[in-house]
Amino acid sequence: PQRVGKAGRRAVDMGEETRITNPDRVVFEGAGYTKRDVAEYYRAVADWLLPELAGRPLSLLRCPDGTKGQCFFQKHHAESLGDDVRSIVLKQKSGREPYIYVDDIEGVIDLVQMNTIEFHPWGARVEDPERPDRMVFDLDPGEGTGWPDVVRAARDLRDHLRKTGLDSFVRLSGGKGVHVVVPIGKGPDWDDVRAFCGGFAEAMAAQSPTRYVATMSKAKRPGRIFIDWLRNARGATSVASWSLRARRGAPVAVPIRWEELGRVDGPAAFDLAAARRRAARLRKDPWEGFAGLEQALPRLE
Ligand code: ATP
Ligand code: MN
Ligand code: MN
Which residues pair with 146 in a beta bridge? Predict the structure, then answer.
């Protein structure tokens, strides 16, 4: 069905209700992907993307002039984002503010129409924004470290987590590093999660100071990997699995099995086309068991 946009202008209908203006505009120079390609990508991976994205407050990275132009983060809702984009009012220091969320692919497509490239959800859901349901350790490699160091750090982190009784899952960021994600059960609030993640990262850095840093001020130490645990604060985000990145070559943040980590070329191993193929071929969720794994926060010794 044709839809008429707010401006009364008829948007291009691409069949499955994808309404996109300027579909042929190149968004990823070099790779040559257009706004239509971006919309079709998100529609193609929707079944994998939505469980990660739907029902969570979101920050968007929007690039109105393509990924080579000025991009900006947006966290506040506006009516102009589209009819299928939802809003949730959250209390902030500055007062009550409307945040963005979507609950279906039409909402995602509305945001693509507004030139969103990247989707960055909270680690909590709109039904219970004060109770995170996951923790994210973002491994940021410093200068002079390579992919093998990142792989080793991720496995090391996984092993340490396992020793405290926590199972974890790994995602290529589509940028320079990986994210190690830990689902938790309801109970802990943001302060609890922050304290645990900070303590955990600091303990790892204290144990292996030549390999890791856990404080922002030392994050750029050459030869070390920054265990960025600051994604675990209220209002902080990390990129969603299956989100495109507004970077050269149209890389995607891709969830993988731990067994795959040693076999991929690097954190940006999947571009738009490769991620789309992967989504189409996947038989099993690479994060099988993630949903419904309600782990308790262990006590740090
Ligand atoms: P990389 O592997 O290259 O580090 P990344 O997605 O982990 O990719 P980071 O710079 O480490 O990128 O940032 C981690 C997360 O912090 C991002 O995924 C994003 O959700 C959030 N973030 C970073 N910069 C901003 C910003 N300016 N505004 C809002 N959120 C941001
Ligand atoms: Mn990172
Ligand atoms: Mn980071």
Answer: none
111-143 pLDDT, tens digit each: 999 999 999 999 999 999 999 999 999 999 999
Q: How are beta strands 225-228 and 178-183 bridged, if at all?
A: unpaired
Phi-psi category of residue 290: left, alpha or beta, with phi > 0 → left and psi -120 to 50 → alpha: alpha
Task: Report yes or no: 205 and 213 within 8 Å, Cβ to Cβ.
Answer: yes
Ligand with the closest atom to the CA of 216: 3
Query: Does the CB atom of residue 57 touch ligand 1 within 6 A?
Result: no
Neighbour-count burial for 110-131, b at 16+ CB within 10 Å, e otherwise:
bbbbbbbbbbbbbbbbbeebeb
Amino acid at 281: R
Q: Establish whether residue 235 lines the binding site of ligand 1, counting it when its CB lies within 6 angstroms of any ligand atom.
A: no
This complex has an ipTM of 0.92
Nearest residue (CA) to ligand 1, atom 29? 73
Could you tell me if the CB of 232 is within 6 A of ligand 1?
A: no
